[in-house]
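Side project, low priority. Logging it here so it doesn't get lost.
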Amino acid sequence: MAKQAKQDNAHLITPTQLTGAEIVWATLVGEGVTTVFGYPGGAILPAYDALRKFPIHHVLVRHEQGSAHMADGFARVSGKVGVAIATSGPGATNLVTGIATAMLDSIPIVCITGNVPSKVLGTDAFQEVDITGITLPVTKHNFLVSRAEDIAPTLRQAFQIAQSGRPGPVLVDITKDAQQATALFDFEAARPKPYRPHPMLGFNDAELTRAAELIRESKRPVILAGHGVMESGAMEQIRSLAERAEIPVGLTLLGLGAFPASHPLNLGMMGMHGESWVNDAIQNADLLIACGMRFDDRVTGTLSSYAINAKKIHIEIDPAEVNKNVKVDMALIGDLRQVLEELLPRVSGRDGSAWLKQINQSKGESAVRDIKNLPDSGHLYAAHVMHDLWRLTGGNAIVATDVGQHQMWEAQYFHHEKPRTLVTSGGLGTMGFALPAAIGAKFGCPDKEVWVIVGDGGFQMTASELSTIVQEKIKINIAVINNGYLGMVRQWQEFFYESNYEATPLVSPDFVKLAEAHGIPGLAIRTRAELEAAVKTARETDGPFLLNFLVEKEDSVYPMIPAGKALHEMILRPKRKNPLVETADDE
């Protein structure tokens, strides 16, 4: 067996003459890639012709945007680089939304595109497009390769760039003649130069000592934990800092799971639809310790009134994010885990009990989210679905969400204990993301239970990927939160546009029949009494399953910070007759 493996990988050990197309796959094998997501076409056909010679599984998507989202979902749950592949022209441009999604959320993916032969570049040849020019603003870096001998070094550098520093997407565009030509493939010789950290990275003893002093002197500190906690692998260090100094932790949307939801120091999600007590704690804090987060506008509200009495420590690997939105008192620029490992020995214990008591008292009746069985008035609310999915899965599932109201309800009611269990588009807010991202997540963690939570609007954008699920014979459960509207847009229209529901009522197909047309069984659920049995059926079915939850149509996500308002100027849930919301007016 070992001898056979050595023979199979001989092209990686001994320099070999290969075509450029073969070099593509040989390099990916050398980088540890076992799965790619793509769609063939003329300009990338030489690579597809060579694929059969290499131990890489190709997932045929139904739209190239799906391949980028699958690579993204794969990377988010596995921590590895996801790979998408497409042809030139529309194949390449269809990747752009997925690339931009990965860029704004700092996800390491490598997208490989074919292009027309180099001799006709710039002539507007059939399906020619300047994809490197188009993607320049939404990639960490991109390359145009026109020689076979440059393919391996370029791909290896692409992987290095995607993973190093602040992760992000890299595009490699390879002309058709480069794929068809031959060159000497030497994997080791193609190794990129050692990664050179940004020259601004670094922190000294005096800065660490001062940061520790700020923590020790603070009376009302809050840790703000973002996506960078997981990208850095700093979960244990964040927990040690919180416990040692008795500091509560607020999380960004993409930070959920970086700090256990059940931990007594976990406050929950901050920001536009975050918990009211988290936002109030931030506004009343005297010290914010921002860890791997970028002070996005959805987190801060209006900047002029954001935590004006708090000193701010920003620990961040990307110098461009420091002082970009929020001016800070101290910046520790570097890898979060490394910074915290240097900082922790300097942080002594402090008594935070008075501050924690003040925060807990501010929760009031909003702690309804912690009640195991939400009140049931006979109506089916999205909050029921989220809470019960969390309860019935034990919180152990990977959840991929789309964007909108259901995304916020998931963040509020599905309590993530572990990192890399929430896959969601934060920065770009990409509708249509959930279904393909979940497919990628399933390949990234094949032994994990995977759920798609998607609205009836976003689901229709990429529903064609249901056939990808069937063709790949993978187990994914899909929960459609069907309220008959583009829900979050409708909510804004209700609050700020005098309930003028222009272009938000949504006519949808029968999603159960749509799933069945793809070969996936499904059920429609109209009451909470039906919910548990339906979820059990979905989980016990060997293959994929779709649940169409027909929820209350005009429910809204609370709290909500209106655009241009401060964190403390939240719209809270009004009292209504519905017992689900009667007790939540302090939310």
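Brief comment: The radius of gyration is 25 Å.
Revisit when time allows.
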